[in-house]
Design brief:
The complex is a heterodimer of chains A (about 110) and B (about 425). Helices cover about 20% and strands about 20% of the residues of chain A. With about 110 residues, chain A is of the alpha+beta class. The longest helix of chain A has 7 residues. Chain B has about 425 residues and is α+β, with helices and mostly antiparallel strands. Chain B is about 45% helix and about 10% strand. Chain B is built from 15 helices and 12 strands. In chain B, the strands form 4 sheets. Chain B has a 5-stranded mixed sheet with strand order 1-2-8-5-3. In chain B, a hairpin with an 8-residue loop joins β10 and β11. In chain B, α5 packs parallel to α15. The longest helix of chain B is centred in the middle third of the chain and has 32 residues. The chains are: A alpha+beta (about 110), B alpha+beta (about 425). Chains A and B meet through α3 of A and α3 and α4 of B.
């Protein structure tokens, strides 16, 4: 198992223990975390699982991949720490990951 | 228009399962007006999901009919180009408007980013009370106890007002927006608002362009505001567009007008039709108004206001066992993807409390995914919230009349009566 914390736009926090290997998007959807829509179901094709990676975690999570960049670059609320939850796999290295949710998904 | 001959071999009256597979042509407009395209798509999804039609009014084309394959095409935007057209019909040779929906990267992204903010959820939140007020005012004028056309009195009026709001277009002239939108998509004919295809550029160039050019200059000379014209006039990628690239200016206006007009209009009409066809769902809604939130995306899926989007292959590509050649026309039939039982449970059922209702393909996916998706959802939600405050039932009292189009899936008539609470 691995830990992940979701922080809502209004500051509400939820820490979950989920199976290793899941994506950040699946961890949220499987546990009914609000603020992640995932309309396309994890295909990197809709950008409705947008999250902001917390502080130092960005080094471990890494930047967007090419397909992700194409779609994220269109989002007006994109920041340097923006990633799509479906593109981040929860490995050992990311145990304890903290992500912030945007106010809106597009 | 009903006695107008169909081109080539008509699909009308044919059994979808007994005609040769290769003869199936789902581009025929009459299929959509008669609402008889379903069987043809069911067969294609099962027997030949990536199907080649060698001859049609629009030339040869591939049909992509399964949800999963549509997603693949959407994702490969470098291979499947949106240029020169996103509908099965090619642009007219002598009237090539250019709009970012029909562009590829990097130009598409540059222009889209400029206007995306106008319809972003943050901006919408500020508009909600105005939309609610206007929706309520429309509903309050409906003739209780009389039969009237819901399309005309509610769906068109509401989406027209919304467009005028988005553009900050002179409110008293708002019906021109709907007229231009209809001109842009109409198929010429005796019952149509245009007689020939040549009417289209004439009307748009003589009326629509000058009107917007005036607004453009007015907004360009003023401080930036949140309406779409102002955003275009001040946006880095678009600020010289009106003066230097007028066809692009017109194209992007038409994109925003058509995009925000037909689609929401027809989903709003569809919502009334589907609830009447499924009385148990209407009862569920009356018992629990919070179901509006899941009903709205279900309506958008079930309606599928645009039947398809079209791409053109930039290079050879193998899709689900078929080789699509460079230059081939590829049509992603959203209307079929939204009835794919491999992606959606009981796809032919209208279920307002469906699990994962937004897992549908009506907005498309990938970089060209509908920019106004949240605005559309918000409009539908607000209208239904306001309907439920006023009426115990919007009752369908006659047969709907559907649009003669293979692109815009909609209605021209929906006779109803409203019953107060």
């Amino acid at each position: 198992m691995t830990k992940i914390t979701f922080i809502q736009h209004d500051g509400e926090q939820q820490t979950l223990e989920v199976e290793k290997g899941l994506s950040v998007m699946n961890a949220a959807v499987d546990n009914l975390v609000e603020g992640i829509d995932a309309d396309c179901g994890g295909e990197c094709n809709c950008a409705t699982c947008h999250v902001y990676i917390d502080g130092a975690w960005m080094d471990k999570v890494g930047p967007t991949n090419e397909a992700e960049e194409a779609i994220m670059s269109l989002n007006p609320e994109r920041k340097d720490t923006s990633r799509l939850g479906c593109q981040i796999k929860l490995t050992d290295e990311l145990d304890g990951l903290v992500v912030h949710l945007p106010e809106f998904q597009f | 228009m009903s006695d107008m001959p169909e081109p080539r071999t008509s699909m009308v009256g044919k059994d979808p399962y007994s005609i040769p597979l290769e003869d199936i042509d789902v581009s025929q407009r009459e299929l959509y007006r008669s609402n008889i395209m379903w069987g043809f798509f069911d067969r294609l999804r099962n027997e030949d999901p990536v199907h080649y039609c060698k001859d049609s009014e629009f030339g040869p084309y591939w049909s992509v009919t399964r949800f999963e394959d549509i997603m693949k095409v959407e994702a490969q935007h470098n291979i499947f180009s949106s240029n020169p057209s996103i509908s099965i019909q090619d642009p007219m040779e002598d009237f090539k408007v250019s709009m970012f929906i029909a562009m590829d990267e990097p130009e598409h992204g540059k222009q889209r980013r400029t206007v995306q903010g106008a319809v972003a959820p943050r901006n919408l939140a500020n508009m909600e009370s105005l939309i609610r007020e206007r929706a309520g005012a429309i509903l309050d004028t409906l003739p209780v106890g009389e039969t009237f056309n819901w399309v005309e009195k509610v769906s068109i009026e509401l989406t027209t007002q919304m467009l005028a709001t988005l553009f900050d277009f002179p409110f008293e002239n708002r019906h021109k927006l709907t007229y231009w939108s209809d001109v842009a998509t109409a198929v010429p004919g005796p019952d149509s608002i245009i007689d020939t295809y040549a009417d289209r550029p004439r009307i748009l160039m003589d009326e629509c362009v000058p009107a917007f050019m005036g607004l453009w200059h007015e907004r360009a000379n003023a401080e930036p505001r949140t309406d779409l014209i102002s955003m275009l006039a001040h946006g880095e990628a678009t600020k010289n567009m009106a003066t230097e690239r007028p066809m692009e200016f017109l194209g992007n206006l038409m994109l925003l007008i058509v995009g925000g007009n037909d689609t929401t209009r027809n989903s709003l009409s569809g919502s009334v039709l589907f609830l009447n066809e499924n009385p148990e769902e209407y009862e569920k809604l009356m018992a629990d108004h919070s179901l509006i939130n899941s009903m709205v995306p279900e309506v958008i899926r079930y309606q599928t206001p645009l039947t398809h989007m079209r791409r053109t292959a930039n290079e050879d590509f193998d899709l689900n066992g078929k080789t699509i050649r460079k230059g081939d026309k590829v049509v992603m039939w959203y209307v079929s993807g939204n009835r794919d039982e491999d992606a959606i449970e009981r796809p032919y059922d209208f279920i307002i409390d469906r699990d994962k209702p937004r897992h549908h393909v009506s907005f498309g996916f990938g970089i060209h995914r509908c920019m106004g998706n949240r605005l559309a959802e918000m409009q539908l939600r607000i209208v239904w919230e306001e309907i439920l405050k006023r009426f115990s039932k919007v009752e369908l009292v006659g047969e709907p009349v559907r649009s003669y189009s293979n692109f815009v899936k909609g209605y021209t008539d929906l006779p109803v009566r409203v019953h107060p609470l």
